[in-house]
């Protein structure tokens, strides 16, 4: 009887652990990109690279993306996310950003302008 209770406890603890890991993994998918990113470079379609100064930023929160580009000002866009696709709204226009690579300290996003390389 003692072994059965021990096995039930073990299975219960394992199930709770697996469920919490599942929810944590799903939360990280949407939350990892949130926050302040420094735009370090833009890689254009012709593979030329524009190395940017440290005063260019992208701020991503749950509902908006704000680009702060030196010499161009600040632009804010509401957005939605489906998987690795961010759909920004600029007036009547829908702009698609595709997440190419996402780690804790580096984010690469394909935009209509080119590939943004963002770090923090």
Automatic annotation (TrEMBL):
Keywords: Signal. Residues 1-25 form the signal peptide. This is Lipocalin-like domain-containing protein. It comes from Rheinheimera baltica. The lineage of its organism: Bacteria, Pseudomonadati, Pseudomonadota, Gammaproteobacteria, Chromatiales.
